[in-house]
Design a protein that fits this description.
globular, about 350 residues, two-stranded antiparallel sheet
């Protein structure tokens, strides 16, 4: 056989990189992810820690006294954690109150839903010349069977996996502890870590990987977090101005749905708007469609401007990467799919 041409070499290199990225994300990433997070947090905290260190340093004769960067970074990180807990507690308390109110009014909602369903079934029975009440009985029987099947599958899973839940909770605690102390040590030993990589024979690969991770973090991670936050703000604010008493709970729920692949805010907003139109409440239905339109425009604009400009990852490619990621990694593929695609593309084009 002759020497492979340039295209064949490129194809073989791409396949090799793709297999390497898959193996890395599947087997290596779970082992090193807390240390990647710690390094990222240390780099984010380093300018603040150095500024505080400079402000708090003082001179005693010829000795300069200053706090270690690791201690300052640890205090800053603890402060951020405490602030996050306070905000989550305040927001969670509000959501809990709305959840209690929703559960208290749930029987009324169920009766209203049954009344609406009965009216729709009656209209369909008259249009199809069926016996009155037959479609409602079919629908109620179907809902009952669906609920029984869901309960039969969910309850054994919850009760039978209680030990797994405890193990998962312990693993989360260990993960957070490793991230915290890893951040402190990375801040304290930052120069030694950089010097080690500069002397390494894999220095060029390290520089290339850092460049790729910066692109990914700025283009994909930051974009998705901003879109999620913006969508939640739009949904919560829109429902608040509608006068909905559950604006916080429903707004957060709808915003989180938008982050899931193939679902989006329209999963709840469209049926809700249709019900409002059927009930003769067109104003509320239009308002719900406006909330959906605003969240949709936000996602399209931010993905096209931030993802396209920084990473060249279009919404179509993002959808394809998410789908492939889910097939390979399960639910974590929502993030790992685009991550792997960007790593492969940047590595091939480097």
């Amino acid at each position: 056989m002759g020497v492979p041409n340039k295209r064949l070499k490129k194809l073989l290199m791409t396949i090799g990189i793709a297999l390497g990225v898959y193996a890395g994300l599947k087997y290596l990433l779970p082992l090193v992810i807390p240390f990647f997070i710690a390094l990222g947090l240390s780099e984010a905290l380093r300018p603040w820690a150095k500024w505080i260190q400079k402000k708090l340093s003082f001179q005693i004769r010829k000795y300069k006294i200053q706090l270690p960067l690791g201690i300052i970074g640890g205090v800053l990180l603890l402060g951020a954690v405490v602030l996050t807990i306070i905000l989550c507690w305040a927001g969670g308390r509000k959501l809990l109150l709305e959840g209690k109110l929703l559960l208290r009014n749930l029987p009324d909602f169920l009766r209203e839903g049954e009344r609406l369903l009965a009216g729709w079934c009656l209209q369909a029975e008259r249009a199809l010349d069926l016996d009155e009440g037959c479609m409602l009985n079919w629908a109620m029987r179907g809902f009952k069977e669906l609920g029984d099947q869901a309960a039969s599958k969910v309850m054994p899973y919850v009760m039978g996996n209680s030990v797994d839940w405890v193990k998962a909770g312990a693993q989360v605690i260990v993960f957070l502890v490793v991230v915290f102390f890893g951040t402190v040590l990375a801040l304290q030993e930052g120069e030694q870590i950089h010097a080690y990589f500069r002397r390494s024979v894999f220095h060029q690969e390290y520089v290339q990987m850092v460049r790729i991770l910066k692109i990914i973090g700025a283009a994909y991670g930051k974009t998705q977090l901003l879109i999620l936050a913006g969508t939640i703000v739009i949904c919560v604010g829109g429902l608040f101005f509608m006068g909905n008493p559950y604006y916080g709970l429903l707004g957060v729920l709808i915003g989180l749905l938008d982050a899931l692949p193939f679902i989006g805010t329209g999963t709840l907003l469209f049926p809700w708007a249709l019900i409002c139109f059927f009930q003769g409440n067109g104003g509320k239905g239009i308002w719900l469609l406006l909330i959906y339109g605003a969240s949709y425009l936000l996602r399209q604009l931010m993905e096209s401007r931030m993802m396209g400009r920084r990473a060249g990852l279009s919404p179509f490619l993002t959808l394809a990467a998410v789908y492939v990621g889910i097939q390979l990694f399960g639910i974590l593929g929502v993030a790992l799919g685009p991550l792997g695609f960007l790593v492969i593309r940047e590595s091939v084009d480097a």
